[in-house]
Specification:
The chain is an alpha/beta fold. A six-stranded mixed beta sheet has the order 2-1-3-4-6-5, sandwiched between helices. It starts with a helix and ends with a helix. The chain contains five helices and six strands; from the N terminus they run H-E-H-E-E-H-E-H-E-E-H. Helix 2 links the parallel strand 1 and strand 2.
Amino acid sequence: MNRDIQKRYFVEAMAKHLPPSAAHLQLLDINGQAGEILSQRRKDIDIQLVESDSVDQWGLDDDSIDAVVAYNIRLETALLNRILQVMRAGGRFTAVFSSEHVSEHYVKLLENHGYVRILVEPAVDDLGVLIRGEKAHTTDNTIDRIQ
């Protein structure tokens, strides 16, 4: 299969994991591999691009991003911590790795960095791995939070 077509399938697998949006979804695309493809599926996305190796220079306010996506990046401590800082409460981080396999390692990695509601599953037709983790809400009770 052509690499571009394969990439499209893997990135499109992320679309169902984006949070719903009432207006515009503030999406952070790490290394610029996924946002353009996702914006073709959802017109409510405002994309910001950053590089994974420059987390100290992102220039983003804390709690300003609804979702973060990444395709085939290295998950390092500084990166995972910075993602949590820039995401709003309830924000979702979704990453796809085209040549990796489902593993408990990803669950523990995200848990150890403070992510909640973690999902690890095959990305496309039992190929690759998709991981998703969320930033915890500031309240435990959803009803209290929306009121």
